[in-house]
Amino acid sequence: MENVTYIALSRQKTLRSMMNNISQNLANMNTTGYKEEKMMFTDWVAKNKDAPFRGEREISLVQDIAQFRDTRVGNIEITEQPLDVALSQPDMFFAVQTPTGVQYTRNGNFTVDPGGQLVTNQGLPVLSDAGQPIFFNEADGQVKIKGDGSISTDIGQIGRLQVVTFDNVQDMNKTGSSLYSIIKENPNDPDGAQPVENPGVVQGALEKSNVNPISSMTQMIDVLRTYQSVTRSLESENERQRNMISKLGDVRA
Amino acid sequence: MRSLDIGALGMQAQSTNVDVTSHNIANMTTTGYKRQRAEFQDLLYQDLRRAGSPSSDTGTIVPVGVQVGLGVKTAAIGRYMGQGTLSLTENELDVAIQGRGYLQIDLPSGETAYTRDGTMKLDANGQIVTKDGFAVQPGITVPNNATSITINTSGEVLAEIDGQVALQNLGQIQLATFINPAGLDALGDNLFLETEASGDATTGVPGSVGFGTVQQGYLESSNVNVVQEITNLIKAQRAYEMNSKSISTTDEMMSSVSNLR
């Protein structure tokens, strides 16, 4: 009897998480290297063999099963900052040393720390292809980063940025601060990072987020209207039940 | 609903973006000003359904999880240290630094401040000071009978004195460089202080390896690019509007529930 309510409830719940997801994308519209997330829904069939009516033996609810990350490259914005780098191809990442192990990012807004070490704007060391931090010193002067990620200065080659790719980038876990990690069962397992020969690094540029504001706005309107119509169907179900109770409960006859 | 908070964080981030951009535009004609840029990062995530967790007893695993983001944060407001254009002033005590380096200024507090603003003046004793009256290191005093001052590209201050054929060398301006100049602490009045992030100052004379040269009679304009700033302002405004739209949409969703009868 209550099926309409449960079905509507499951839809409302998914619409709310979809709305959260859209606002997350919009909030990160100007976040360097941010990738748009999309929700995936699936039906979830509840079976009840003992239901009195055939139409109620199987009811189809909805649940949010997963998120899909749009990995397309965002706009490349020129910043002219020598230590800003952008990756011009999708599914590639810079390796960053964090206290909890190596993590990956597409945010190439790098600086140097007082020790001359190349770090992210969070102060985490950026790794070279040998897995080591990269150091500059006062005499280096102009820094040049080539398309293959190799860094050279006035006094010669310093190293090469580690750029890696993965078999399935959808597997990567977002940890915030533009970082991604790989979930490993055992901390000593290899994380499956594969070095990229020619990553197409662009110096003096940053990759902006790839959030599509138009589709986000349209989705948002869609979510709102669907939510309102589901709410209305809840309302009319409520009305029907009230009617039923007052009519069947009327004992004047 | 999370989207209310997320939208609010988004609006805050974009208003920071507008603040930084308008600060740049306001300092468009400030001598030696370096433009700043706000950098954003996504905030942390909540795992609602973790990728890789088992989805059945037979060992199948969830291929893609559900991670709910909690908004955006301002990660850094970086300073872009690129060279500003030089503008001719023909003032003999104006210098522009071409390349790396800062002039060193003695603050009344005894600390040393650093600046790219080379507008210098003479005080009552003939000492070279900034327009706020702070001494430029090393203290150089111009004698009363000097008729003109020449500052060469390596910072040597030479005075032409009435009745003397040779120029008199009064001293040499020194520059300071930092491994991470973006980490300097801005004090206002075009002055910067050394911080832990900038590293220690390395001093040297203009023109030596790793140091810029000085140009007499010029000042360094700000490196603000107006077109870029205006574009950024438009982008920030639109993003702000969209975040406010996500708040009002969430509000409508919630009100449709609270009006349920």
Summary keywords:
heterodimer, A: 253 residues, alpha+beta, 6-stranded antiparallel beta sheet, 3-stranded antiparallel beta sheet, 2 helices, 17 strands, B: 261 residues, 4-stranded antiparallel beta sheet, 19 strands, 32% strand, elongated, flagellum (chain A), cell projection (chain A), bacterial flagellum (chain A), Flagellar_FlgE/F/G (chain A)
Shape of chain B: elongated
Largest sheet of chain A: 6 strands, antiparallel
What low-confidence regions of chain A span 5 or more consecutive residues with pLDDT below 50?
A: none
How many helices of chain B? 2
Fraction of residues in H or I helices of chain B: 10-25%
Q: Strand count, sense and closure of the main sheet of chain B?
A: 4 strands, antiparallel
The overall strand count of chain A is 17
Mean pLDDT of chain B: 88
- Helices and strands of chain A, in order, run as HEEEEEEEEEEEEEEEEEH
What is the subunit organization of this protein? heterodimer
Helix/sheet category of chain A: alpha+beta
Order of helix and strand elements from N to C terminus of chain B: HEEEEEEEEEEEEEEEEEEEH
| Beta-strand residue fraction of chain A | 25-35%
Walk across the major sheet of chain B and give the strand order.
8-7-14-17
Name the biggest interface.
A-B, 65 and 71 residues
What is the terminal-to-terminal distance of chain B?
A: 21 Å
